[in-house]
User: Fold this.
Amino acid sequence: MAATEKITIMDIARRTGLSKGTVDRVLHNRGEVSKKSYAKVMEAIQELGYEPNVFASLLAKGGKRLIAVLIPAHENGSFWELAASGIDKAAASVTTVGVDIVHFEYDQYDIDSFRKVAGKMLEARPSGVVLAPMFQGETESLTEELTQRGIPYCFIDSKPDTNGYLAYFGMPLYKSGYLCADQLTGGRDVPSVLIIRVRRDRFSQSDPTVNRRAGFLDYMMENYPECRIDNVFIDPNAPEETEAALSTYFQTHPDVHHVVMFNSRIHLAVPYLQAHPDPQRRVVGFDNLKANMDALRNGTVSVLIGQRPDEQVNLAIQTLAEYAILGKLPPRKDHFMHMDILTSYNVEDY
Amino acid sequence: MAATEKITIMDIARRTGLSKGTVDRVLHNRGEVSKKSYAKVMEAIQELGYEPNVFASLLAKGGKRLIAVLIPAHENGSFWELAASGIDKAAASVTTVGVDIVHFEYDQYDIDSFRKVAGKMLEARPSGVVLAPMFQGETESLTEELTQRGIPYCFIDSKPDTNGYLAYFGMPLYKSGYLCADQLTGGRDVPSVLIIRVRRDRFSQSDPTVNRRAGFLDYMMENYPECRIDNVFIDPNAPEETEAALSTYFQTHPDVHHVVMFNSRIHLAVPYLQAHPDPQRRVVGFDNLKANMDALRNGTVSVLIGQRPDEQVNLAIQTLAEYAILGKLPPRKDHFMHMDILTSYNVEDY
DNA sequence: ATACTTTCCGTTACCGTACACGGAATTCAA
DNA sequence: TTGAATTCCGTGTACGGTAACGGAAAGTAT
Assistant:
């Protein structure tokens, strides 16, 4: 095995009768080479099957590359905290190969903070950027800027309808609504379902939950068209109000045993649900936040659908690093991650 | 960021008034250094926080490292085929950093073939080995040999009660039986369950299914002690016999709607089950073999519990590579992988 | 033909580490 | 004290590639 002696830049220099300087110039096509020499070198590269020695290259180039991660600030116990945790994991494995990671955070409810932070990020002159698209327009102008500067970028979580990105890692949203419905109903007819929703402000943010809800409703429509579907809106910043809203609802609808929420905030409903147990109840939510997993353990939540946000950023970073260091393109652009079904019996090793 | 100029071997040479040769000697402690010099160098390394440049080191060392993977031969559509597929994935990412992978296969029912192949493997002088322990005694003597030669090794799938391995990647077996029971019953009382088992030959192989069965039975005992549990044995090499066995069983037990199998062969039961549908039936099996996933899609199997064998070997290889190249130890030895719950609604992106 | 550009290309000095080699310093025996 | 054996250490080169520098060859204008 590994019979073929590694052939070097010098080999093709000798083969073509040129010097390694010239060979290097065509390899990085930085001009100053005649067409004839260029062709000869290319041919020799082809025939000898030359592959550059990464180590030598990196050593000679010197310095460190930088990858920037631009995601919403992670308040404690939020979805983005999970994503942020993937940064450290990735950092550990790429720093040893000369890549540093900088983490930029912005307020996901403040478009100005996004602008500012994006600007700072650009100043750092990264060789790659990991992005979670929140504000449509701003994301677009940022990616344009990146393209101009020749900086590759990856999307995580969700992605806009553009095309210039290097790769995308996320969950198939519509399908996740389907899966969610199946887990909630257990494949059996269900008379009624309560959807708990969060009141959004008018920012035109990308909202993953609309696709999920669409998938969910389609599943219900197709399988249990008779099922009544109620909606209750809550305010994430007013726990008492949430409690009141749920209380009011369940007083008038004691017959509803199926509860679902399409964002990562099912934990907001847990205090009420736990205080008012219902043996027939089934609750499904999304994302493996600490609070959600605790609710899974204590039985308040039946199933959680997870998407490994940490893996998403980890993969995005790896992909960017490989591209920045080795120039290696990922096998495909879009990576739809597996949707993990979490129950109290398999949370522990998650 | 990244302010500190990278300090090199020369820096500590200057700092100590010694030469880089001496510094190098203490770094690789290959002797021929006086105690005094040794101490001085160590101190300087400490103070300056010297970290070797991996690229330069690898470049200077030259040559390729080799990682061997030693797992049972993968007949088409078998569990080990899944594992083998992880090899290519890993290979792609490590060859670029100068690591080659050799794949050794043996007949998992023939201990002699294991001996032979293990011998061949050693001859290849790998810098790391990925092992799936099948034959207890043989595994032990192999690992001893590896330890003597200073070759690190990782276990996947299952692991013996030894301690010299670098890392282990596998599923928590006992727990997976628990999870399996919960998915089978759906958390509701069930009057009776059929376990389909494969008759084993007398080889003292490590058998993951015994732990799974134990977990399963404990769950049933704890939750539904009244449940009757039947066993039917089949022969993987005689499909007609399997069909006959199931047919006989279900003729006398038409009331049994819950079927489970603890190894990856649930697909063996699929022909019968599919030919004799039962709307109330629930079937749970293990591992994402192509045939199993197809059964999931067509509704014959309700749930599959997956453990990503490809990821297991991939991670094992990565770990070994990092250790062999960078000398980096994994953060912990035992990696219990998440148990994936697969249904027809989330198979596609698996 | 001369001077002046361009276009090409070879030379050379690194990058940071590994390791062989040979020599200086020290120790030991006689 | 001298020679040999040890112990310790510095020098030099290789590893494969990058990129600045400067000069030769070819082309252009006068």
